[in-house]
Design brief:
Radius of gyration: 12 Å
CATH architecture: 2-Layer Sandwich
Strand order of the largest sheet: 2-4-5
Strand content: 15-25%
CATH class: Alpha Beta
Number of strands: 5
Distance between the termini: 14 Å
Structural class: alpha/beta
CATH superfamily: STAS domain
Length: 90
């Protein structure tokens, strides 16, 4: 799953929630969320990612955020969630 928007915030939360829910319906063991175009992310979206992570964990599945920009990494650190959301650079 790739997000094209520069900013992911509360305005996009409903659409993002629906997209993330569709990830739960497939049976892929690893869900990769590509944030290459995202420079800003707010806490509402981080919360959605945390919720997806927990739901996948309950199904013995995993998610990873890939191509995280500095803005995304900074937001995860500031929110205290960087230890829970794996962010890689591919």
């Amino acid at each position: 799953m790739i997000f094209e928007s520069d900013v992911l915030g509360i305005e996009e939360a409903d659409g993002i929630r629906d997209a993330l829910l569709s990830c739960l319906e497939n049976e892929e063991p690893l869900i990769m969320i590509d944030l290459i175009n995202v420079n800003k992310i707010d806490l509402s979206i981080i919360q959605l990612f945390l919720s997806l992570r927990q739901s996948l964990h309950n199904q013995n599945r995993k998610m990873v955020l890939i191509n995280c920009t500095n803005g995304v990494v900074d937001a995860l650190k500031l929110s205290g969630c960087s230890q829970f959301l794996e962010c890689s650079y591919e």
